[in-house]
Amino acid sequence: MRITLFITSLILAVQPMLIAAVPPNIVFILSDDQAWTDYGFMEHAEIKTPHLDKLAARSLVMPNGYVAAPLCRPSLASMATGLYPFQHGITGNDVDGNKNRAELDVPMRAAFHQHPSFIKLLTSNGYLAHQSGKWWEGSWQDGGFTHGMTHGDPKRGGRHGDEGLKIGRTGLKPVTDFIDHATQEKKPFLLWYAPFLPHTPHNPPKRLLEKYTKPGRAADVAKYFAMCEWFDETCGELLDYLDQKKVLENTMVIYICDNGWAAPSTNKEDPNQKLWGGYAQRSKSSPYENGTRTPVMISWPGHTESARVPDLAHAIDLFPTIAAAAGIDPPADLPGINLLDAKARQARKRVFGVCNSTHNITVGNPDDTLQYLWCIEGDWKLLVRHHGKDTTKYKNLHVWDTLPVRLYNLKNDPQEKNELSASHPEIVDRLKKNIKQWHPVPAQ
Question: What is the pTM of this model?
Answer without folding.
Answer: 0.91
